[in-house]
Amino acid sequence: VLENRDLQDSIKPQKVEFRSLNFNSTLHWQPGRAREARDTVYFVQYKVYGQSTWQNKDDCWGIQTHVCDLTNEIAEIQEPHYGRVRAASAGVYSDWSLSCRFTPWRETLIGPPTVTVVRRNKSIILKLQAPRSPYKRKRGSKIPMTNYYDLLYQVFIINNLVDEQHRVLVYEGKNKVIKIEDLRPGVSYCVVAKTYVPVLDRSSAYSSRQCFVL
C-alpha cells in the first residue's frame, strides 16, 4: 500500500492552469515529481463554479500529452470554471490536481489586430481587423472580439532611419481604416498595432511588423 501511495504522490500532476487567447482556452499541467513513466496517462474533468458534478472531457481521457483544449466546454465566458487532472501509471491513479478559478471574460488575453498596409504617394492607409473568437455566427463566420469588449486600436510607426526600436503612437481609437500622412519618400518605415481593452486596462502583444518604403 505504501509503495502505491508513493507512486500516487509522485505521478500527481503539478501546476494545473488555464491559458486563454481570444477565448481559445486550454488546460495545461506538468508531470509529477516521478520522472514520467512511459505509460503515464492523464484524465481531465471540468465544471462551472457552484456545480456539484464534474464533467469528463472525453477527448482528454487517458491522454499522454500535458494539454487539453476546453474551448467548447467553457463557452459561458462570464462564469468561473475549474479544471482538474489526474494521472495513472501501472494501474495506480493519483489524486486530482485542481486549477485555480478561471473566468474567460476576465482572464483571456486579447490578440493584436491584423494589419493590412495600402501605400499611397506620401501616405499609407491601414486596415485593421479585430482578432476573432472561436465562436461562430449562424452563417459560420467567427465572431470578432469586438462583440465581447469595447476595444481600442493603438497604431505605432517606426522610422528605421531614426531608431528601429522606437515606436511612436500615431493613432488610438476604434476606426478600422486609418490614414497616416506626411511620410518621407525613400525612408523605410514599419507599422505595428495593439488591441487595448479599457475595461480591463489590458493591452495585447504587438502585431507583426509591416514594413515599407514609399
UniProtKB/TrEMBL annotation:
This is Interleukin-22 receptor subunit alpha-2. One of its GO terms (molecular function) is cytokine receptor activity. Pfam families: Interfer-bind (PF09294), Tissue_fac (PF01108). The keyword Ubl conjugation does not apply. Gene3D superfamilies: Immunoglobulins. Residues 12-107 form the Fibronectin type-III domain. The keyword Signal applies. Belongs to the type II cytokine receptor family. GO terms for cellular component: plasma membrane.
